[in-house]
Amino acid sequence: MKIGFYPGCSLEGSSREYAESLRAIAPALGIELEELNEWSCCGASSAHALNHTLATALPARILAQAEHQHLEELLVPCAACYSRLISAKDALAKDTVLRKEVAASFTLPYTGATAVRNILDVLTQALTPAVTSKLPNTFSHKVACYYGCLLVRPPSITHESRYEDPTAMDDLMKKIGATPLAWGMKTECCGAALSITRTDMVGELCGRILEDAVARGAEAIIVACPMCHSNLDMRRAAIEEKTGKEFSIPILYITQAIGIALGVDPEQLGLQRHFVHVAVRGKAKG
After folding, report:
1. Using one digit for the tens of pLDDT, what is the confidence trace for 184-218?
2. Is the model's pLDDT at 177 over the cut of 90?
3. pLDDT tens for residues 57-68?
4. Considering the entire predicted model, what is its pTM?
5. Which among 151, 242, 136, 218 has a CA at the least distance from the CA of 188?
6. Cis peptide before 45 (omega within 30 of 0)
């Protein structure tokens, strides 16, 4: 499967382990990533709160570049970037006036031809029975799959029928031998971009998420969003200050969990970059 790849700002900086783990597992899953040339910031997570035209033009320029590169599909692993790209594509399809305004801001033609795909969709397609039957390890841990706000909402744009109780990540984890738990915080907000301006609020919101996951017996929380990972992992001190409790539960990207099952070296998956130590490992089959 050859697919375009838009890393976005986070995967080049604060969440580089997400990109590292994706690139590390891609060959084993039969995924060939073609990185988007001359990609730029999509505007997440603040542009849409300031200027609607700009917030649409930034992701539209990315999609126009993908068309220029003849990419039929574009994988957008970051949930925030994915949300901005599909929201812009939807807005441009419905509003001809906005489309003309946006088109004037860059030189590349835009037709909306490139399909935007999220990480769970692509991994579901790639993690076939033929692949899972050859996994050297099982990820034999109880996990809480955390989708956050942006992968499944708004349903009018994501077309997710189970936007309150999604299951795609849970199904992927089952394929690698994990036990996804039923829990109440799957799609609750972590505080997202308030990480710097309202760390106290992030501590409170993330505290509820960690408390529920731990109470259910989770050994790890699995995510597919750099902002969710950052808030749950990097802001652990703020969380513990708010809750008055200590938490050792690690936060893993879905790509890292799959990489563990594939037997990829932990450093290639970027596990050493986490603020909270990742003790969970794979168990060799048979």
Report:
1. 999 999 998 777 778 899 999 999 999 999 999 99
2. yes
3. 999 999 999 999
4. 0.96
5. 151
6. yes
Are the CB atoms for 163 and 187 separated by under 8 Å?
Answer: yes
CA distance 133 to 158: 31
Burial of 275 (0-12, 13-18, 19+ CB in 10 A): middle
Nearest to 7 by CA among 190, 187, 255, 175: 255
Sign of CA dihedral 112, 113, 119, 124: positive
CB under 8 Å to 267, separation ≥6 — which residues? none
Domains and CATH numbers, the chain: 2-119 (1.20.1050.140), 128-284 (3.40.50.11810)
Q: What is the pLDDT, as a whole number, of residue 51?
A: 84
Cα–Cα distance for residue pair 55/48, rounded to 1 Å? 5
Nearest to 144 by CA among 82, 244, 203, 211: 211
Burial of 111 (0-12, 13-18, 19+ CB in 10 A): exposed
For the record, the structure tokens of 213 come out as 């996951």
Q: Which two tokens stand for residue 207?
A: 């505290």
Residue 30: other Cβ atoms inside 10 A: 14
